[in-house]
Amino acid sequence: MRYYFGEKLREIREKKGMTLREVAERAGVSESLVSQIERNRVSPALDTLLALLEVLDTDIEYLFRDWKRSRPLAYVPRHKRERVEVEGTVYERLASIPGQEGEGIEGYFLCIPPHGEKRSEPLGHRGKELGIILRGEGEFVLGETTYSLKEGDSIAFESGIVHLLRNTKEIPLEAYWILTPPRRKV
Q: Can you give the pTM of this predicted structure?
């Protein structure tokens, strides 16, 4: 993703009444380079950008303020959640952001039927998970260790170990489950 800021640099330079040549000389770069940066033809090296900002007496935060606001956003109204059932457990996909190489995050509302369970792959999987029990009680098994979970409890763990969440009561167990990186294709 490219972010363009050349117009902002030009605007600052012009408001300060400075010429391309004056900015270039003070920053120790060519006039042509400053012109190309202002027209978004090239992206400057960090040291060049910092030199330009110093000459223009401008903070780097001002230059990148809009970039921070243009991040990906996922919005899923409750009534539009994608829903799938796997071995009795209902998964409703919450807002999720895909990613590459370990980035990204996904979340689910889980509803595990009485005495049902949600289990990992036989050898676990890459990533991290965080679960929050909303309603009901259950057991969480991570490797050889079992944890008792009740309403309001939360758990976070590395997913590379075999794990499962088991409902131990006669009512559905409901939970929010967050994973990174994303795994399911709901």
A: 0.61
